[in-house]
Prior knowledge:
The protein is an alpha+beta fold. The protein is built from 13 helices and five strands. It has two domains: 2-179, no CATH class; 216-353, Alpha-Beta Plaits (2-Layer Sandwich), CATH 3.30.70.270.
Amino acid sequence: MGRLLKVRRSVLIKYLERGFGIQYTHPDFRFRGFLFSALVLISLTLVFFTYYNIFIDFFVPMLVANLIALIFCLMGGYYLLVRKQPKIAAVILQLLVSIDSFFLILISGNEEFALVFAFLTPVMGIFLLGYLWGAILSIINFAAIFYFCFTQMETWGPVFFDTASLIHFSVIYLVILIVSFFYDSSRRKAYQMMEEANFKLSELATTDALTTLRNRRYLEDCLMSSKKNHYIAMIDVDNFKQVNDLLGHDQGDKVLIELARVLKETVAQNDIVGRWGGEEFVIIFAEHNATQLQATLEKLNQAVASHDFGIKRDVTVSIGSTNHNAASHRDSIRTVDQALYTAKANGKNRYCIMTEAT
Ligand SMILES: Nc1nc2c(ncn2[C@@H]2O[C@H](COP(=O)(O)OP(=O)(O)OP(=O)(O)O)[C@@H](O)[C@H]2O)c(=O)[nH]1
């Protein structure tokens, strides 16, 4: 039984994902799910009352109100499922609720069930339109109903309605409005803070602290999830141990920071430059053919060799490069490493391009 329910649930979710145009895990899925459920529930209720007002208790004003509301529901569904514009669907649903509840008061007078529907506006309006627009709509709705109640007092039917009734109605309405307002503003603030914290965490997890370039985790994620092949380059500082030994680790750090800047400035803006670890860097080229690649690698060698790192000695790099294939990531990394080794073995301050089969 539990299994059957689970299967039905996943089938339903699959249909909803298709209808909403987003995945179940998308942060907007619940909101669209609420819109969808509200539209279905209200439509079914309206269909029932349309039937009721035709065949059981023929009453033209309610019938017209029901039919107009049904048209609103269909429009809401169209914007939610066909146009994939949930914000417009939310506005339509909210107008439907506010206008219909007001119509109900106009038609049914002060019958308590009619007035009770007025409380839907501050609750739903703030949830659907956000605390600012929801509150503005709720206040307009309140002013309209208050005016209507006030001008009908003592004479209004079918139930006796006096100042105390008006005060009760107003207090309950405003309390609901205030609670909804603060609840929704806190909810949205908490959500925004959580999103910011998540963003900061993911930045920290994928950024190299010394150079502020992307780190190896980020580069590998990028490479392994890529749908197309990219040329990559692995860059290693030549004789870096000497820099550390002669000038100290701090100067070595400064050279790495400066080198990161030079590499970034030399390649295209959409190429990804990252620190692989130690004195090794990796570049993922966004767009390149073999000829462009050679020119860029040459430019990189020259840019580093001609740059003044402020340590009164030359800094050069060796570069290995290959065409990376996501399906054989480890092999591609092995190849680029081998290409780098060859560039070092051939005298450093140069590049070497290798293909995986080599
Ligand atoms: N200052 C500093 N040094 C680092 C860092 N990471 C690694 N190193 C140093 O980088 C040096 C790498 O030295 P080796 O692997 O021997 O290579 P190399 O001296 O560059 O020689 P070749 O690669 O053959 O040109 C070591 O001295 C490491 O301590 C870092 O974050 N900061």
